[in-house]
Design brief:
Number of strands: 12
Order of helices and strands: HHEHEHHEHEHEHEHEEEEHHEHEHH
Number of helices: 14
Strand order of the largest sheet: 2-3-4-1-5
Largest sheet: 5 strands, parallel
Number of domains: 2
CATH topology of the largest domain: Rossmann fold
Shape: globular
Length: 403
């Protein structure tokens, strides 16, 4: 399905939100919207990559399956790299663009989740190659799986929108250049948000010189658009609000709920429409009961009374810039296992500069009532206190390499 030129684009959607009072005029945002509008219009007649292998003509029919799609019939539009400080509206603008993008062949994903998917595909390809080597008596194959993986991704989505591109893992760094070369060759269009300009990606990372070609690709293939307004909208929504509510009662629950809707620009009346999400964690599914605009909501019981671990908590910390936890109990020797998981959870959030809001039975200082992990929990209490500070709340989301 393709859309006509008359269909609503990002500029019209942005104006509608301003007229509804959901957004305030922002010159920096409007410049970014103009770039997104340019890409929107160039996408209108751009053929979906998957459709190139279907149909009845030579160009779109079964013969096309024998030839890789190169995008030569129509120039590939230049994608967008949207970067700026925390809370400037990058994710909101990308979501706005994605919602009206004139193609059905599109995928919007957190960059960390995308890379987990890529590494899973790589493992599958390596396992298959190992099986074939065993069948051939141990003879090695030099086939690079990256081009085939890129073709598979391209068939699934002509437009890829990545939220919060940050590279902290050498495994990701080593894969990215080859992967994105292959994706661009397939005609995939990429839109990215990041807290950092391209030249600062993977700064101080191990073997960074091998990552530099990826940065050059970004600058060549994507329009680099800064979003450096003075207003931190995310912090502005949090300013003046409590982040740690106690005790657990109807009043504190209502206050925490109101903060969630303020952070996500949703109306309280639409609480039933807030979607759930699912994270892939080492082949397992982790349910996120409520999530919107990078804000996730969990009960304490779901995350710390169940047998979850650091991999689960790191996936949450990498995916969401803000986490709300409901109904934290007071800890003692009787629920020490839950206390240990809570320590691990807070460590993961803290190390990735995730904003943390919660409701708890008691104040932070009284959260641990005694037991064998008192020393470890003192650090958690210290971090909970720091996570309420203005300095912490204005930090960008993500772990910084080498800083």
């Amino acid at each position: 399905m393709k859309y006509s030129i008359e269909e609503t684009g990002p500029e019209a959607e942005y104006q509608t939100l301003m007229q509804a009072g959901e957004l305030k005029p922002d010159a920096n945002q409007f410049k970014a919207v103009a770039s997104l509008e340019r890409l929107h219009r160039e996408l209108i007649d751009y053929p979906e990559i998957g459709s190139q292998r279907r149909g009845f003509s030579f160009k779109n029919g079964w013969l096309a399956g024998f030839f890789p799609w190169s995008g030569k019939d129509k120039p590939t539009p230049k994608g967008i790299y949207l970067y700026g400080g925390v809370g400037r509206g990058k994710s909101m603008l990308m979501d706005l663009f994605f919602s009206v993008a004139p193609t059905t062949s599109k995928r919007r994903v957190h960059f960390h989740e995308f890379m987990l998917d890529v590494h899973a595909r790589l493992k599958e390809a390596h396992d298959l190659a190992a099986q074939k080597r065993a069948q051939r008596g141990g003879r090695a194959s030099d086939t690079d799986p990256i081009p085939a993986i890129a073709r598979g991704i391209a068939r699934e989505a002509t437009l890829l929108c990545f939220d919060e591109l940050q590279v902290t893992d050498i495994g990701d760094a080593m894969v990215l250049t080859r992967l994105f070369t292959a994706l661009f060759d397939q005609g995939v269009i990429v839109v990215v948000t990041s807290n950092r300009p391209p030249d600062d990606l993977y700064k101080h990372g191990l073997n960074r010189q091998r990552f530099l070609p990826f940065i050059e690709q970004i600058k060549e293939r994507l329009e680099v658009v800064p979003l450096d307004g003075l207003i931190d909208y995310r912090y502005h929504r949090l300013k003046g609000a409590e982040t740690y509510y106690f005790p657990i009662n109807e009043e504190t629950t209502a206050q925490l709920s109101a903060t969630f809707f303020r952070l996500t620009d949703r109306r309280v009346e639409d609480r039933a429409k807030v979607p759930s999400e699912t994270l892939n964690v080492q082949g397992r599914k982790l349910l996120v009961p409520k999530a919107a605009r990078g804000v996730a909501v969990f009960s304490f019981k779901r995350l710390c009374a169940n047998p979850l671990g650091s991999a689960d908590y790191l996936a949450i910390a990498r995916t969401y810039h803000t986490v709300i936890m409901v109904a934290i109990p007071q800890f003692s020797q009787e629920n020490s296992d839950q206390a240990k998981r809570f320590i691990t959870f807070i460590d993961a959030l803290y190390e990735h500069n995730v904003k943390f809001l919660c409701s708890a039975a008691v104040s932070p200082q009284a959260l641990y009532a005694g037991g064998e992990i008192g020393f470890e929990f003192e650090r958690t209490i210290s971090r909970l206190m720091e996570m309420q500070s203005e300095d912490y709340l204005t930090r960008g989301h993500g772990r910084i390499v080498g800083d």
